[in-house]
């Protein structure tokens, strides 16, 4: 139990440093220094910097996957599913900002095996997103717009949210949770 | 006339290299080599790598500014203005992909004076965009959603378009020009 706590403390500290300087520019020594411990004692809890990176990236990626797997099969309409997905992106952005930044900036530094796992999760996520759009179009709930354009537009905004949110703390989370889904799903033009 | 042609050839070639490898990783020697000329003769046409960068970045930034200055005062409604702005982003993305990539990736490497010019143009552009949104809300043409969220969402998508467009050549420009403005302005939900 003690070890698990220490490990999660190491990971949280590393995520902050990776976010600030990028994975490549941070050493195990830097992480130890930030924690006020010796570099050698880091290795009691963690095998390598790569292990920290994969823990961070796969933790966030699995948060997205788990939510998608929970929402996708529900008997609610496509609009409600997309709404839930957008709310989940906002929640993860607010709650795991450093982890998310690290995933977005440093996933390409994962080793071969973890990279394959990450890409599999990301592709599966996009495939479910695409299916929800296509089902929504088939059921006449959504406009028949090019799915690739819609996926690009919505996911680009959601993936960049952590960058904007870090700078624009003047916008309250409640406003974001109310207005971002409206903007993405219903647009900005009055009917 | 000959010098101008040569200069524009140098700039186009440099933009391609900057896009591929980033401004910092490209030398004047690399640009000369790509053009099949001696590095020394580059300097007959151009003072420095910084001059090339500022020519590229300010060229694109001014394309956006000129279009905004032409559209903003017109007596058309806010939706038509936003539609025209989105179409212009698509046109510049398609016509000046390398220049746009260079602006997005390397503007921070401009020297102090050019950086100030660029940031002034970018801030003025965003301010006009914000005013169009606010006028549209005041005239009841647009939904009263938080303007900062809307600006973030639309400009993030438009600014990332060149990345996506380079990879997704399967989507025709005509489809993009039809469906992207719809997605951004009217959303994807059927009324």
TrEMBL record, chains A, B:
GO MF, any single term: DNA binding
Keywords: DNA-binding
The UniProt record lists the keyword DNA-binding: yes
Coiled coil: none
Top-rank lineage group of the source organism: Bacteria
DNA-binding region(s), chain positions: 27-46
InterPro entries: Homeodomain-like_sf (IPR009057), HTH-type_Tx_Regulator (IPR050624), HTH_TetR (IPR001647), KstR2_TetR_C (IPR041490), Tet_transcr_reg_TetR-rel_C_sf (IPR036271)
One Pfam family in the UniProt entry: TetR_C_24
Ranges where the HTH tetR-type domain occurs: 4-64
Keyword tRNA processing among record annotations: no
PANTHER family: ACREF/ENVCD OPERON REPRESSOR-RELATED, ACREF_ENVCD OPERON REPRESSOR-RELATED
Designated name of the protein: Transcriptional regulator, TetR family
